[in-house]
Amino acid sequence: MITGFLSLLCLGLCLGYEHEQKNEKLPKPSLSALPRSVVEHNSNVTLKCQCHFQNVTFMLGKLQDSGYKKVQSSAGHDAEFLLMDLKPKNAGTYFCAYKITGSHEWSEKSEHLQLVVTDGHDRPEASSVKTNTRVIFATTFSCLVIFLLFPSVFLIYRCTQHGSSHEESNERFIQSGKSIPLD
User: Fold this and answer.
1) Which residue has the higher pLDDT, 15 or 106?
2) Co-location of 95 and 160 in the same domain
3) What residue range is the signal peptide (predicted)?
4) pLDDT at 9 over 50
């Protein structure tokens, strides 16, 4: 009787534990892009999904394409998905998930990763160089204008001072009644 009772108790505890484990969600994995998430047209990128468990199956998905799904098993804590010869259609929002061995339930989805595929003309580095060149040109031009403005103002000031003193002396001569020699 006691052995039967212990067997039933053990079975109940095991079933309860299994039920509790199924309701528990697996934590989110992390997703990163190597070497970076902004890449040039026709280049390669590796999307790396990582979790805290070993011996899992990873899945890479794309938010804009529900049919896009890459699956990879791993004995370690991560899986690398190599995307080669990238085109603009490969750009988008990616995520990953995993499931542990013997489970049919996927973990929560990772945080989204935005992959940007550029051609050589609209790279962020190229636009910043173009912007920097414009700033340098505008600064140089402004400095040149200011440099030429100061001597011009000085010359105008000197000429007006010289002309006004000549006119003042002519007025003094006229007021005193003396004749002014014409040059």
Assistant:
1) 106
2) no
3) 1-16
4) no
